[in-house]
Amino acid sequence: MDQVLEIERVDLSCSVNNAEHHTELNGVNRLIVRRGQPFTITVHLQPGSHIHNGLNINLIVNTGPASSEDLDTTVKFGLSKFTSKTRWSATAVVTSENTLSLTVSSNPSAPIGLYQLTLDQANGVTLGQFVLLFNPWCPRDSVYLGSEDKRQEYVLSQDGIIFRGKPKHITTLPWTLGQFEPEMLDICLKVLDQSLQHLQNPGQDCSDRRSPVYVTRVLSAIINSQDNKGVLVGNWTGDYEDGVRPTAWKDSCSILRQWYHQDFIGVEYGQCWVFAAVACTVSRALGIPCRVVTNYGSAHDTNANLLIEHFYNESAEDIGDDSIWNFHVWVESWMSRPDLKLGYEGWQASDPTPQETSEGVFCCGPVPVRAIKEGDLTVKYDAPFVYAEVNADVVDYVILGDGRQVKIGDSTTEVGQCIITKAVGSDERVDITHLYKYPEGSEEERQVFEKANHQNRLIQDEEEPGLQVKIKLTPQMMVGTDFDVFAHVKNNTDTPKKCHLMFYAQVVSYNGKLAKTCGLTELTDMNLGSTEGNKATLRVLYSEYGKAITQDRMIKLVAMLVDTESKEIYRATKTINLDCPSIDILVQEEVQVDQPNVVNVQLQNPLPETLENGVFSLHTVRLTDGPPLIKEVGMVGPKEIITAALEFTPKAAGVQKLVIDFHSDQLSNIQSYKNVVIGK
Fold first, then answer.
1. At residue 349, what are phi and psi to the nearest 5 degrees?
2. 314 close to 295: Cβ distance less than 8 angstroms
3. All domains of the chain in start order, with CATH
């Protein structure tokens, strides 16, 4: 007969258990464990109570608002001689006449979430609550990751680096993921509770949380607010007056806390790297290994034909729907794929930035990176869209006044130029392009294109016959300066050619959306002899582009060459990323916890005009308490060097990042960072 235990109190041993389960960074005031791994609690009976020989008790665990045994969100189990590695189980050791040590081991495939642990007896005594997370340290868990260095980086590290810019002008943005910061775990669990799946069927949703594939797909939808009470509102208009400009964010915690405390109203505003960083924070908080990746030359294929088709009118205006983002950021999560064939385990790409719908909702992935490389577009989820992002061909057309469609160029290398992520254990970048695609022009690449029903065009190293036009740049192009760019034209034929060149600059955002032209169009007529070349110079003036430049500081150059006799059109484009000034950061070598310190910063105004409402801010999410430290510097004259001192008192030891941001009415999105060792 089962013994009824009169319990006085239960010690959940949070300090010991959390440390053993790699969750102590969440704090030790409650029990947070990872699935498939035992934890031990101590049950103290009422004074005078005794534990009989041959103790026989049963335990119940349940999670979710509508838990049931059918959904495996309620599980009953008794005591065993040994804990099981494949199911819920428990062992008991009597440590004194009224003290019992219980060791509980969870199913490595159990749903994650907040659990109740109950003693199954007449009075139904609750032993305590615990949070169960995915477990990359458990070989039977579907998120198991064999390398400890990678577990430290992709699960436990709270610091990230996000890469932006262009392949030849890569910029780094330090980002505090902060998955172990106060409130973060509860907020991340609440993110799942606001999903459409949970609101429609909470019982089934909580049951499905056993699968990291399911959870990752839910996150790709709920991080954006397109269909639901998602975390972030996307904005690519350049008008952010009623919210926060995307480049101002430096950490995920501020965004998640704002969303949580304002009753799940989408936070304004985010762009791709912000969506990805927040998704990475939530994934790591839940125990899914995750990293942020950047794809340079990222295609947005709107009609799923694996081609990016640019259509231009005779004024060279882009009138098509497809686009190529200068860069795009998404996440990869590590897991097995029992729903797919062997070989598709490992990194899975998912994208919380709302671009196209999938199964009626703005979400994307997860899809095995390996499937993208092999051109297997039949696998779940959204393989054709991700494949096009990294490997689509580009075809350019001009629509003439009489309605005729004329092809003016194509490229097999413009999309997916390189794909990078932060290195394990350092702030360096790692090129992972080879994980997504075979080398351009290789036999494997051609086979992949054939499998994807997509024609591959070999890259020609030698100069092609006919007319050629290329754009060349000057070495230094600092924002605020005037500079020259050049269109080089060559006639690679045996006959003279009469040509007409149109060469102009146009402000562009990182996602490929064009703004108004800078008003810098040049029209040039050329007579070229056989094998003869020529060039046209375009002077790009700050007085023109400064009126339209966005926070991305990008300008697209377009050269269109028309053979006046044959009417054939040749086109070259190049996007430039204007340099920005660096912020010099000076901090003393020895910095101690709880000791006031000063960081001195310096910046030169690169613009030929006065900066108004200049502000330095020190972002140290895990270094100080409270919001970013602000230092207003007011007006900064043309080319003037401005300095400021910001005081901070570090609250945590270890290597921390001092992130300095400068913003003014005329110049923003300027940041630098410095790693600082904080002594105890």
1. -90, 135
2. no
3. 7-133 (2.60.40.10), 148-451 (3.90.260.10), 466-577 (2.60.40.10), 584-679 (2.60.40.10)
Task: Report the pLDDT value the prediction gives residue 314, as an integer from 0 to 100.
Answer: 60
Residue pair 250/174 in contact by the 8 Å Cβ criterion: yes
Q: Residue 567 pLDDT more than 90? A: no
Q: How far apart are CA 58 and CA 605, in angstroms?
A: 71
Write out the catalytic residue numbers.
Answer: 272, 328, 351
Task: Give the Å distances, CA to CA, from 275 to 196, 256, 332.
Answer: 18, 11, 13
Q: Structure tokens of 161?
A: 């680096």
- How many residues does the structure list for the chain? 680
Q: Answer whether 118's CB lies under 8 Å from 63's CB.
A: no
Per-residue pLDDT tens digits for 441-465: 667 766 676 666 433 333 233 456 7
* Closest to 271 in 3D by CA, of 366, 187, 162: 162
CA–CA separation, 273 and 422 (whole Å): 13
Residue 164, pLDDT score:
93
Euclidean distance between CA atoms 281 and 277, whole angstroms: 6
What is the distance between the alpha carbons of residues 51 and 47, in angstroms, rounded to a whole number?
A: 12
Q: What is the pLDDT of residue 461?
A: 35
CA distance 526 to 563: 10
Question: What is the Cα–Cα distance from 419 to 70, expressed in whole angstroms?
Answer: 44
